[in-house]
Design goal:
Layout: H1 8-37, H2 60-80, H3 87-108, H4 113-125, E1 150-151, E2 157-158, H5 175-183, H6 188-195, H7 199-218, H8 233-255, H9 259-283, H10 303-325, H11 332-351
Antiparallel strand pairs: 1-2
């Protein structure tokens, strides 16, 4: 039996419903390969039905701000100028390297250019020493400052090619101002951001913060470290063994040094003994009995060999601390202690002639 023909209104409604069904099927077909390939949309992309939206990476706001701030500090250090081996000149290179590496990490993890651009504009517009730390809210809209590119002796632009664009500062940059800017990175909010990162990103970011603390100290603006509480007694005991080995090494360095080098060795030894006592308290019953000595990597019978041993010991100690960063995901107080110890180790290394590193303890 043939039913009655639909009237015009019913026909129109039926056609509309069919079009909507086809449209939904088309979107579903489009969404399936996108989701399967892991493609993530930009944050500001239109919200279409069934299409995946981008999820920020762990600690994204913190890492993006750290990247943008690195470029800002590179420009400030370059403004100070000076010979290649001076600390400001080293820091211009160090921060440009940080900006390059951190941007590479963010790009590899598909952080959109729009997020990076917002952070760069915010860093360019803020004061060199921010009043509330360098954290940049995600998606913040801050008027961009007019970039002022710096030039090298050869006339080429720098460090804009390695990181974020430069911006004029409100006042001329001085070593003291740069030191305060380095120290501004070490506030509780920033360390909370560090605790939200993961894996190698955590290790890189923690090492970069240790560089900030070391550079601030060397520039005469020692940071005010937030309180920390290393709660993992077993890990504290592991670190204690590394520190005890370093203490023994510097007992040998001190004994085989003379004059100014002996004074420097005694100062480094005292700093390491203070850390040893702190870690013994943190380790508690997990601490192992002290051993009488440790094998040396080479004979140490002259001041020259003693200096070589000093650098060898400090390099190994920094590597031990940096490796521990990646094992401390989500543990803010523990990370604060690790960054502080790594920073102090970088200070001692610099006093023994080691240049400042962009990521202390990391190859």
């Amino acid at each position: 039996m043939i039913g009655p023909m639909p009237d015009a209104a019913d026909a129109a409604q039926h056609a509309l419903g069919r079009r909507e069904a086809l449209r939904a099927l088309g979107l579903a077909a489009l969404a399936a390969p996108l989701a399967g390939c892991g493609i993530r949309l930009e944050d500001d992309a239109p919200r279409l039905p069934l299409l995946p939206t981008r999820q920020p990476i762990p600690g994204e706001q913190f890492v993006v701000a750290l990247w943008a701030r690195s470029g800002r500090l590179a420009s400030a250090a370059a403004e100070l100028g000076g010979a290649a081996k001076t600390l400001p000149a080293q820091l211009a290179s160090v921060h440009a390297e940080q900006a390059r590496v951190l941007r590479s990490v963010l790009v590899q993890q598909a952080v959109p250019d729009s997020v990076l651009d917002d952070a760069r504009r915010a860093a360019d517009a803020e004061a060199l020493v921010p009043t509330a730390g360098p954290t940049v809210p995600p998606g913040a809209t801050v008027p961009a400052a007019t970039p002022t590119p710096t030039t090298s002796s050869g006339g080429s632009r720098s460090p804009a090619s390695a990181g974020p664009s430069a911006a004029p500062t409100a006042a001329p940059v001085t070593p003291a101002l740069l030191g305060r800017a380095e120290a501004a990175a070490l506030v509780p909010d920033v360390l909370a951001g560090l605790a939200r990162t993961r894996g190698r990103t955590l290790s890189l970011a923690g090492a970069a913060l240790a560089q900030r603390g070391a550079s601030a100290t060397l520039l005469g603006s020692a940071p005010r470290w937030p309180e920390d509480a290393f709660t993992d007694a077993d890990r504290a005991a592991w670190l204690l063994e590394a520190t005890r080995a370093a203490v023994y090494g510097f007992q040998v360095v001190t004994a085989q040094s003379a004059g100014a080098q002996r004074t420097l060795a005694a100062g480094t030894l005292a700093a390491l003994q203070g850390r040893e006592a702190e870690q013994e308290s943190l380790a508690g019953a997990s601490a192992r009995p002290r051993v009488l000595g440790y094998p040396l990597p080479f004979p140490v019978t002259t001041p020259t060999a003693a200096r070589r041993l000093a650098l060898h010991v400090l390099t190994g100690l920094a590597e031990s601390l940096a490796s521990e960063l990646g094992r401390s995901e989500g543990k803010q107080p523990q990370l604060a202690a690790l960054v502080r110890w790594l920073s102090d180790t970088a200070v001692q290394s610099n006093r023994w002639g080691q240049p400042v590193a962009a990521f202390p303890g990391m190859a």
